[in-house]
Each structure stands twice: as C-alpha cells, then as structure tokens.
Design goal:
Elements: H1 3-25, E1 45-51, H2 56-71, E2 76-82, H3 87-93, E3 100-104, E4 110-115, H4 120-129
Parallel strand pairs: 1-2
Antiparallel strand pairs: 1-3, 3-4
C-alpha cells in the first residue's frame, strides 16, 4: 500500500471521527437536579444517573433518560446529576465510576446500583422489578 493511500485513509477516518464526536457535542442533557437536599424524593420511585455531560456513555444515555422521563412521568423521578460540576454529590452517593445509576424505592431506600452504560431495556426491567409499570 503506498503512502498516498495510507494518508487518504487516515484523513477519512479522522473526518468520520470528528463528525461522530461533533454530533455528541451539540447535545445537551436537560435533566438536572435543582435541589440536591431533597434527593431522592419521598413517595416516588427514583433513578438517579450520576455522570457528566462530557462523558460519552453519559451522552449515549441522555436520550434514553429523556424518553423514559416522559414515559414514566408521575410514577418515577428520573434525575441526572453532573458530578464533574457537583463533586459533592459524587461523594454523597459514593460513586466510583461514571455513569452510575442508583434506583431508590418510594421510601428513599437504595434497591439497585449499576456502574457504566445502562440500556433502556435494562432500566425498564429494573423499574418493573421494583413494581413500576
């Protein structure tokens, strides 16, 4: 393979990578906790996703969380906390990696914790285990 073909392939791969990453940079998470002291809210099941708006797995989960927030509105509080902006919340919830999802029952008791990306199917399955339909 000659040098020109290698350079062309590298340029194409770089361009694809830039387009892929730029598609994420324009996406903003819109689910944020405003009052951390009231978390998790009493009387409602809650999923808190602790991550950062610049972490790739967190960005991949953002549209899933937005969709589920609408789907489970009034039954589950789905909350995102950017722990790079709110480091005290990372300590408070004892997280070691991002993203971390913590599920609480309606009494505010932690019932499940997941480290890393969590698919929509897995989130819905966990909510069903908690008796939420």
């Amino acid at each position: 393979m000659n040098l020109r073909r290698i350079q062309t392939r590298i340029a194409v791969i770089s361009l694809i990578g830039c387009l892929f990453l730029s598609s994420f940079s324009s996406f903003h998470l819109e689910v944020h906790a405003q009052d951390f002291s009231s978390l998790p809210p009493k009387g409602m099941a809650t999923m808190i996703d602790l991550g950062a708006d610049s972490c790739v797995p967190c960005k991949l989960m953002a549209p899933i969380l937005k969709k589920l927030e609408k789907e489970f509105s009034g039954r589950v509080a789905i909350i995102f906390i950017d722990v790079w902006k709110h480091k005290d919340q990372a300590r408070r919830f004892g997280i070691r990696a991002i993203p971390t999802q913590i599920f609480f029952d309606k009494d505010g008791k932690e019932v499940y914790r997941n480290l890393g990306f969590m698919s929509e199917k897995a989130i819905v399955a966990q909510l069903k285990k908690m008796g939420i339909k």
